[in-house]
Amino acid sequence: MSTIWITGARGFIGRHLASHLHQAGHVVLGIGHGAWPEEQSRQWGLSFWLNGEVDAHNLQQLLSQGGCPEAIYHLAGGSAVGTSFLSPLEDFHRTVDSTARLLEWIRRDNLETKTICISSAAVYGAGHEGPIPEGAPLSPYSPYGFHKAIMETLCRSYGANFGVKLALVRFFSIYGAGLEKQLLWDVCRQLSTDPRRLVLSGTGREIRDWIHISDAVRLLGLMKDLCDRRVPVVNGGTGTGTSVSDIALRLCRAWGASAAVDFTGKQRPGDPGSLIADVRSAQAAGFQARKAQDEGIGEVVRWYREHHRQ
Q: In the chain, where do the E strands start and end?
């Protein structure tokens, strides 16, 4: 049994990761924003939750509470392209500042801790066709993508200069029951109001690599064994691209709706045409996606109907 910390543990990925690690026998402590009653946090596998910034003072509190962690999963940071356009400075603080404070604390006090930082396919930018390997040039064009790229550079600096053991995961499109944002959430909200018509932004031809949350946390569970001062990078995806139009139609079928799906034709800022993961590095680490897409979409529909009845 080992002790593991998660920054941003109250978020969608964080709470599922906490549950996964707890079930694997680890003691899990978390830090991030928001009040989280102990009864609720313990249901997700946390032995301790600290509501606060990722800074030296609060990290010392976690250290006093649970001892030295074998690994830290750094999930705190900006979480959406759209909001980074609305509040770029806040997105910078959440992603870049929090990472700098965490890495400096590790450098100063605890170099043996392994650290896994969550990045995004947004660092690749646009203009890609087919699976994108980790070695592809980075060309972000949203504040969110730029800030993730800066975070990655910080990690490489602390690995090269101070020997901090790190690994990076660039997730593509994570989905699952409980995620109250992004495409599937938007489709469910519209269908709950009018199951006959659905209007979405973009063209519908945008391609995304959809990875279910259960697969995402399994990949994260493998990443601590890869941590190294050379800071390896692994794509978090399935290797299969599906169009936004196809995902919307599949969700309509799961809903039991025969909605006419219309697209505005106007792309959202920072929205690339195609993002598909080259998953050879993940497969080399022992990862294989398991969740069938239609099964995952069906779970989202059932969860939404159970928790968001009109």
A: 3-7, 27-32, 46-51, 71-74, 114-120, 131-132, 166-171, 173-175, 197-200, 207-208, 210-212, 233-236, 242-243, 260-263, 274-277
